[in-house]
Design goal:
This protein is mainly alpha-helical. It contains six helices and no strands.
């Protein structure tokens, strides 16, 4: 169930990204392109090890469908040049509908977002470049948390 019009969400998302300088968005895109496999692998490793999350997953599902889907999702969400924010919102809504249909608890969805954020932090710029790292995180966190549905 959508809680906002998809065009409102698309405009909100676009505004969030436009407030982030393009060089930082490019750094995030490069990070995701370079480490997308690592992010997806870590995400599903944590989920499969979690006794609650693993109830919704199988190794076969992760290997054949979910991990490759996560990699594509990450690339789409963090691409620098988004031509169609409305289609990205629709994609997010479909992901949310799947999560809701199989009754994945909100705490597991939020834990997944936290796991991605932690991995982004661990693979982003070195701590010595704290200002750049904070900027990258300001770009990444809102993108991960764009959920156009009610859970």
């Amino acid at each position: 169930m959508r809680y906002k019009d998809k065009h409102q969400l698309a405009a909100e998302w676009q505004t969030l990204l436009e407030r982030t300088p393009k060089p930082l968005r490019q750094a995030v895109e490069t990070l995701v392109e370079s480490h997308g496999d690592y992010f997806a692998d870590h995400f599903y490793q944590v989920m499969l090890e979690d006794p609650h999350a693993s109830l919704f997953l199988s190794n076969e599902q992760v290997e054949q469908r979910l991990n490759p889907s996560m990699r594509r999702w990450l690339k789409a969400m963090f691409a620098v040049d988004h031509a169609d924010f409305a289609s990205l919102v629709e994609q997010q809504e479909k992901v949310g509908q799947v999560h809701a249909r199989i009754d994945i608890p909100v705490n597991l969805v939020l834990n997944g977002a936290r796991q991605l954020n932690r991995r982004f932090i661990s693979r982003s710029t070195p701590p010595s470049k704290a200002r750049c790292r904070r900027g990258m995180l300001r770009c990444m966190s809102p993108t991960i948390s764009i959920w156009p549905w009610k859970l």
